[in-house]
Batch of 2 targets.
Target 1
Amino acid sequence: MFNSQSAIDIMIRDSYWLDQEYQPTSPLDGEFDVDIVISGAGITGLSEALFLAEAGVRVAVLERREVASGASGRNGGFMLSGTHEYYADAVEELTTAYGPGGRRHAREVWQLAIENHRLMVGLMQRYRIACDYCNHGSYVVAMARPDRGSHPRPMERVAQSARLLQEDGFDSELLDAKTMQGLLRSTAVSGALFNRFDGELHPVKYVRGLAQAARGRGVAIFENTPIQDVMRDGRGLLIRTPGGRVRAEWMVMGTNAYTPQLDMSYETRITPNRGQAFVTEPVAERLFNGVFYANDGWDYWRQLHDGPGDGGRLLFGGSRNHHLAAERGSHVLHQRGRIIKTYRGYKERPTGMVQRSNDLAFNRTFPHLAHLKRTHRWGGVMGFSFDSSPFVGETETPGVYVIAGFTGRGNAYATAAARILADRILERPSELESRFPSIRTVFAASRAPCVKTPARRTS
Ligand SMILES: Cc1cc2nc3c(=O)[nH]c(=O)nc-3n(C[C@H](O)[C@H](O)[C@H](O)COP(=O)(O)OP(=O)(O)OC[C@H]3O[C@@H](n4cnc5c(N)ncnc54)[C@H](O)[C@@H]3O)c2cc1C
């Protein structure tokens, strides 16, 4: 029924999205002066670079490997509204964390993701980024037999979330077992919450499109240029790389999971977690549209729109819940400033264990498709925050900013976060912050795990 380890070994061990020609730019060689340095050329770093460059700021992006080589080139391409949780859970948890304003906070966090989606579409149009974008909505699926680590009565959570979302003005609908079983041709599902606005894209085409747009606005992007250290230099910053140095007034960390490697104060705030996925050979028939998020987000799937004809490959990811210890990174331990244990958890290489669990989950959900060959299998490293919300703002080091900790939802928040931060750095009024004031609290860069902020579950 599923691919054996030896079969897994001969699969392409990299992201389907990255499996296309690419010519990286040269690494930094020498000295360079800019207003702002950005670390990381993923969706976050490049969106930030573009927004700042549009305002005439001189920006350099330093990327350790290549554009989109991090999680931004390894994700499912889902553009979902909200954090990874059921809306009902987010309302409860934000109420526990912040008091009676919790429902308003949850509503604004969800609305911000919708604005994020609109901003992305705006960038696609403005810079003619062809990235296979479409929006057929998303389905938060309740499985008939909930998997390990997920809610035992998912339909209850889905129905409760649908009711709360509708009350809060979102275009969401509760779908019953018959509808979902008909849609997916699968008896493994028992209903879903449908969010009509959500969409999907080819993440690498999008992020490479951002890079091209940023270059067009004068942004210098140096690939294969890891930041080694950041020092204060008079009133500004000095950023060292193997081939050179950059002087800048400010720096923005767009390094998501890798942020604690640049700023130790994020060790307790962001943990690296590996996610793994595969795609199958192409299927000529269009089986279903939209993106599907099941078992509290542990598993997810979609059919791509990459042909032949109306059809496309199936993408399936998840199964971390069966291998948490192997997939969750551990923290760096420092003793008197010396690293005594480094992270494990930055390995992108897919593993037989998780890929086999993914095969089983896929085959259980779609027994009639179990025969499909898997052509690409890959992993990517996500940055999970201690409470599921990203960090956006100035860090404890003046002049150094952060946007990180998306907890598996970079496509839902990176663009809006980059816009908000650009407005703050440029000291101009932020339309997003005035419409969604909760973001300053819920996404505060300064928050840290403490007694008053109970840990929210991160799937
Ligand atoms: C399998 C998988 C599926 C996912 N599915 C989805 C999804 O469907 N929807 C969604 O919204 N999110 C999804 N995510 C999460 C999403 O991919 C991330 O939240 C998002 O890509 C984060 O973008 P980023 O630009 O902040 O970080 P990244 O894309 O990780 O970019 C950080 C960059 O920083 C660079 N870097 C690190 N250290 C340094 C240094 N010292 N110097 C210079 N550069 C450095 C890295 O090389 C990397 O390119 C998924 C993730 C995975 C792994």
Target 2
Amino acid sequence: MLLLSALLTFILHASKVRGLDNGLAITPQMGWNTYNHFGCDISETSILNTAKAMVANNLTKLGYEYVLIDDCWQAPARDPNTGAPVANSDKFPRGIKALADDVHALGMKVGQLHVTISFGWLTSRGDPSQKFGIYSNAGKLTCGSRFGSLGHEEIDAKTYAEWGVDYLKYDNCYNEGQAGTPKLSFDRFAAMSYALNATGRPILYSVCNWGEDGPWNFAPTIANSWRISGDIMDNFGRFDERCPCTSALDCKLPGFNCAMARIIDFAAPLGQKARQGAWNDLDMLEIGNGGMTYDEYVSHFTFWSILKSPLILGNDITNMSPETLEIITNKAIIDINQDPAASPATRRWKRSVPGGDLSLWSGSLVNYRFIFALLNTSPKSQTVDIDFTDVFVDQGTVYQHQPYALSDLWQKDASGNWGKPLGTFQGSLSKVVIGSHQTKIWMAVPAP
Ligand SMILES: *[C@@H]1O[C@H](CO)[C@@H](O)[C@H](O)[C@H]1NC(C)=O
Ligand SMILES: *[C@@H]1O[C@H](CO)[C@@H](O)[C@H](O)[C@H]1NC(C)=O
């Protein structure tokens, strides 16, 4: 077993340069976070109930393994004697460690003792399938004005490790002006990365600095993921002055209230920077929170998946509509997100139509499979011809001209699995009718 493990590790390291070297987020992380639905109104009970509902709804089996507490878990002050972080005793009467233990045990209870070979890590320890995460801030205070971790990185990381924390989301408020150049941001976020590493416990490190100073350039070796924009708003495309930038590149004020489709635009050029262990984070999902239609949430889930963003649910898992559950459990879409090739889709063209635009995206998966997707942000239904010279522009003429078996990944096949076979196509897919704010996505497999 050990030998096999060593061999796998060797093969992987020999074949591909990874991001942060902590063995985590080899594919984008998946889970749930308190913030988008509960905000600061969190407690041990609501978090534990969510963790149970994740198991009951089979979300854990699909890969949603992290249960994450966002801001506002902290007591009014650190321990006056040790300087260690302390949890709010009204919200977490038994402390964070007891909650982390319960979440870990929940994974064990459902009997998901499994052997996981995830590229170099050979685990046969019966790992708990649910993991636990927490939040802090690379500043004096958190965004919700609780104590931050700037200058307290070591004691905080050590305490998190003692509590059994598997994941840290690390925010960017009240940063005392230590931003504005990549070096300033790097130093501030690297301090926590090194402190986490020094604990010896693998802790997934999710940097949330809203794209400031280009984290896709400075963060891949210190973080498993980095936010690329201001906070998401549960809205398809509305412009809000508090999210003023038109591009994530050189954005001087990331802000917040960034509509979902605007974040897709921000992400478009950044796919080239993602790799195993190091991902562009398009922010947590809003599916099920009520601000978008079914078609809009399908667009949201599809793009977060194909751009290889972490998939962190943000809705009330204990109370979901069948539509919400259906969207977040589309296994064909999740499989694209988790594909070992780790290759984000690229936008091939964008065309203006009245009130919005149409765009074509495509990407490749392992085993000579491909996907392409069409997005319509306009208020009207559109009819589009998709030319395979655009879809397979990276693969060249042989691929552009060969026939493909296509399936539609938002329809089900005869046995109820996602991906309805549409037949064989060569050269183009013509007269595709796509509704307002809709996304259509196809899998293409070379046909004989
Ligand atoms: C710490 O960093 C070293 C060197 O990059 C790496 O080999 C090790 O796995 C890391 N440990 C943890 C716990 O992240
Ligand atoms: C979860 O999976 C089990 C077993 O496969 C199945 O019986 C159950 O209906 C599923 N629950 C949901 C909510 O899909």
